[in-house]
Amino acid sequence: MVLDTLANSHKYQGIHPLFEKAFAYIKGQDLKALEDGKYEIDGDRAVAAVFTKPAKTAEESNDKFECHDRHIDIQVLISGEESIGWKPRASCRHQKGDYNAEKDVSFYADAPEMYFGMQPGQFVILFPEDVHSPMIGKGEIKKMVVKVKV
């Protein structure tokens, strides 16, 4: 997991071949004016989703404590205040159901090991080994999630 501000995104471009393109796309948008929807960055290899939704309680979000096998998430907070629960996948012991290949998601009944807050202009990179429960907060949260194929 990586947590930082968009101003420092250049430091992480070498982690994955598509990160430079993904961060250029993110930084090239007027994020506050961007409408909810899906946006293609590089075919199906890098796709952004923008959404505005009510925040969840920690309990609601932890009910869908999730991770992905085939994608890395770059989650950018646009507005609101958000906390995200996190735990390394290697420490999770209680998978809920089977891996959903169509949606590229596994859920766990484990509790997060820690929570971290995000402010607008910050991003988190969540790798397949990062189990996470996003959207915890109050009020409305607007964010962009870029799915980058591993």
TrEMBL record:
Q: Which Gene Ontology CC terms are recorded?
A: cytosol
The family database entries (PANTHER family) matched by this protein are listed as:
EVOLVED BETA-GALACTOSIDASE SUBUNIT BETA (PTHR34986), PROTEIN YIAL (PTHR34986:SF1)
Gene3D superfamilies, per the entry: YhcH/YjgK/YiaL (2.60.120.370)
Top-level lineage group: Bacteria
One Pfam family hit = DUF386
What species was this sequence derived from?
Cyclobacterium lianum
Traced from the root, the source organism's taxonomic lineage reads: Bacteria, Pseudomonadati, Bacteroidota, Cytophagia, Cytophagales
Q: What is this protein called?
A: YhcH/YjgK/YiaL family protein
Q: Where is the signal peptide?
A: none
